[in-house]
């Protein structure tokens, strides 16, 4: 899943260090926040107390996007609408064979956690990597606008195959009351992967494509 360069970037993300030598918009936005806010390694705790931080980060990202030409005006084309998930509205772009996701980052306590998750996904699953198009406001709420390759399924996903692939790459499946969950933890890397079920992974030509992931940085689970 990852090369030595990817491993180094993953370590920087977990440590909250600025990632050098990468010029994509997502890394730039993450570095912008990283210079101003610390990276949390406490998983999904104190959401309410972090609400102020998330609001401050939203204001920073709005400033960043407008300054660097990443602010998007105008609503998405309703004719291209595909689906609404837990945190994103999904639109299809036939010209580029990709989907465009308007994500409000609701699963994350802060926007820095959200951008870290996107970058971790891109490093571990480059065949479905996101590119950050920019940011926008919809009804006064900040959304990240992401583009991702469109992948179709040609078979049902076997979650045991998903488990084997993740286990091979150092992710331990977390048990609850002796039963496997959809959550994984990589102790060596210090990252958590959650909510891996058959709607978030697609199989095509016997290859697994992870299309929706939720990552958190954490030293302890």
Write up what this structure looks like.
The chain is α+β, with helices and mostly antiparallel strands and 221 residues long. It has 2 domains: 4-149, no CATH class; 159-217, no CATH class. Helices cover 29% and strands 28% of the residues. It has 5 helices and 11 strands; from the N terminus they run H-H-H-E-E-E-H-E-E-H-E-E-E-E-E-E. It has helices at 4-15, 25-34, 51-67, 111-124, 159-168; strands at residues 81-84, 88-93, 98-103, 131-138, 141-149, 172-176, 179-186, 191-194, 201-204, 207-210, 214-217. Strands 1-2-3-5-4 form a 5-stranded antiparallel sheet, with helices on one face. Strand 9 (201-204) and strand 10 form a beta hairpin. Helix 2 packs across helix 4. The model has no long low-confidence stretch (mean pLDDT 92). InterPro entries: Kinase-PolyVal. Pfam families: Kinase-PolyVal.
Could you outline the blueprint of secondary structure elements for this entry?
Layout: H1 4-15, H2 25-34, H3 51-67, E1 81-84, E2 88-93, E3 98-103, H4 111-124, E4 131-138, E5 141-149, H5 159-168, E6 172-176, E7 179-186, E8 191-194, E9 201-204, E10 207-210, E11 214-217
Antiparallel strand pairs: 1-2, 2-3, 3-5, 4-5, 6-7, 7-8, 8-11, 9-10
Pfam families: Kinase-PolyVal
InterPro entries: Kinase-PolyVal
